[in-house]
Amino acid sequence: MYQPLADEIRPLDLEDVAGQKHILGENGMLRRIIESGNIPNMIFYGPSGTGKTTVARIIAEQTNRSLRKLNATTAGLADIKNIIAELDTLLTPGGVLLYLDEIQYFNKKQQQSLLEFIEDGRITLIASTTENPYFCVFNAVLSRSTVFEFKSIPADEMEKVVRRALDHENEKEKTKIEADDEVVRYIASSCGGDARKALNTVELLVTATPAVKGKKRFTLEDVKSVSQKSSMHYDKDGDEHFDTVSALMKSLRGSDPDAALHYLARLLETGDLIGACRRILCSASEDIGLAYPQAVPIVKACVDSALQLGLPEAKLPLAEACILLATAPKSNSVVMAIDAAISDVKRGNAGPIPRELQNVHADGTGFEREQGYKYPHSYAHHWVKQQYLPDGLRDAKYYEYGDNKMEQAAKEYWDKIKGGKN
Questions:
Q1: Which sign does the torsion angle of CA 303, 245, 200, 155 carry?
Q2: Does position 121 have pLDDT exceeding 80, yes or no?
Q3: Phi, psi (rounded to 5 degrees) for 358
């Protein structure tokens, strides 16, 4: 029976688990918990192929618990009831360790069906998810669990995984397998920190490479042709999407054009043209704002061009927009001003609109006085002092001039006209 290479060489000891030194290293919290033998309910959160299932199996083995595994994409209440029926029987003498993969696909009722049993200790739950558990796991389960984050495996650690796989295949095969360091490094770096991807690549190369004089030699060209196209974990509706677009916008805000281009490249490589366009457009007003108002029409033109061109050509106007925004002067005075105004409105700080600003149709219809609006263009410098805010907010100050050249020039202009009362 066929067994995938990833299962054949799955680590049996914590020492052999690649990566995760922050939780499985010598003083890692998860390692200390496992070694204590007192295993709490846990949620393993992180990308695919980072060892979540492997660690759960090691825990079950080292604590003499019966491992039961369910995948929430296909399991239902009946599967949970079958496991519950095994409790307190000879089938589960040391208790059950339930590994629930992709818990985010269980609805509230399904997750809550486990509460009684994980609370009294008859079931030890280890759930895994690639999504943020604080959003996808219901509070009742989350509050009874400890969350551990698994991270993508670094390339240097992944090289060890690839070499171990090659050694294993050498022992299995009747032919000798050869792979240069360059090939090993490419496999390790192109899998995006996912050990399963790397091992699948090795397995496919072993299958597809013909033997010549008793040897199978992997070439870099072959590796590139069978490696996964993308080295990233990405889901347009998942955490990686929001992390990437967030990183793009924060790089623009932080005036780092190189980082901005990197995250733009990630989005474009996965075909997420809309996500890139939305964040770039937003940054023009949110982060550059009045320090360089021309950024808005320029970026809008770049985005329009990108949407009209489509990928791959869309990369050019979007890269131009990113570089422009990252290197432009910054101001968040617009954000601060509108947020302050919205805050007052939400708190109910509104009040009647001043009579001077009401629509002229109200004149002569029972109001105690005429509107009395002063038309600014009839006065010097097109300005005249009058009240615009409601009475309860007449002294409110929402907009503060930014410390950039553009806004300071506007401040200086109005200070002269308004007598320094800006």
A1: positive
A2: no
A3: -70, 160
Rounded Cα–Cα distance for residues 422 and 397 (Å): 10
Residue that has been written with the tokens 């597809």 in this structure: 208
Residue ranges of E strands in 162-243: 176-179, 215-218
Q: Which two tokens stand for residue 56?
A: 């759960």
| Residue carrying the six token digits 């490094």 | 185
Evaluate if pTM is beyond 0.70: no
Type and span of the H or E element at 67: strand 66-71
The Cα–Cα gap between 113 and 119 comes to 11
What are the pLDDT digits (tens) for 88-117? 666 666 668 889 999 988 888 888 888 888
Side-chain half-sphere exposure of 134, counting CA atoms within 13 A: 4
Q: Which of 263, 22, 270, 245 is nearest to 153 (CA)?
A: 22
Instruction: Give the phi and the psi of residue 44 in degrees, each rounded to 5.
Output: -95, 120
Span 12-41, pLDDT tens digits? 888 889 889 999 988 889 999 998 888 899
Residue with tokens 């929001």: 242
Structure tokens at 270: 């996965």
Which of 399, 386, 395 has its CA nearest to residue 349? 395
Token pair for 336: 């601060």
| Strands lying side by side in the sheet with 96-101 | 66-71, 96-101, 123-129, 42-45, 146-149
